[in-house]
Amino acid sequence: MAIFFLAWLTETLEVYAILYYLDVNIDVWTAISIAALTVFIKGGTFFIPGSLGAQEGGYTLLLMSFGYSEVTGITFALIRRLREILWILFGLVCLMLLKNQDGVSKPMSSLEQ
Questions:
Q1: Which of 5, 50, 52, 68 lies deepest, with the highest CB count within 10 Å?
Q2: Rounded to whole angstroms, what are the CA distances from 94 to 24, 65, 86, 98, 109?
Q3: pTM, 2 dp
Q4: pLDDT tens-digit profile of 1-29?
């Protein structure tokens, strides 16, 4: 539970950093609230493949409810989506590098089964 809490606090730091660099006046409690509510958006859109469009719309509506502009909400959502894409690419590169190592298991022959 402590690791989950630290990961959630890291997400709060991400929310704060994104909005800070978008030149938005934000305090720590607002960042904590936004990070907590984004969990509901992610959970509510799990059935949509990749949550494409749904997360972006949810983040935009969430930030608008906190008094920020539509542009800030959309930019926030796109920056978070870009972060996801970069981590996916990093994981695919790691898999590609691991596949080229000698320790990769080979298919079993019919005699070994």
A1: 68
A2: 36, 39, 12, 6, 28
A3: 0.78
A4: 999 889 889 999 999 999 999 999 999 99
